[in-house]
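We emphasize that the prediction below concerns an isolated chain of 98 residues; any contacts that depend on oligomerization or on bound cofactors are therefore not represented. The input was used exactly as deposited, without trimming of termini.
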Amino acid sequence: MAMKATDAAYAVLKAQGQPMDVQDLLDETLMQLGVDREPAIVARIYTDINLDPRFQYRGGASWGLKEWQPRSPGRGSLGRDRGGFEEDDGEELEEDDG
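Result of the prediction step, given as a token string:
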């Protein structure tokens, strides 16, 4: 194989532009590599995809690229604010009961 299987799978997903079912991804990858579908080869490619940080399991046998995942904003300040409100509410209830 001239091209690495994970590079071929990456190229397939990049061209597709959206997550793919793992079986379709494997079929397209094998086609790119010019390799017949044999259980040992499929298992090795699937394992390599699992270990490669460029890929991301999306659930339901679907795989995509990690680079497609939107960056989430930091949650640190939101968590602290909520904690502060909960503590304040609890203190007020204690004062009302006393």
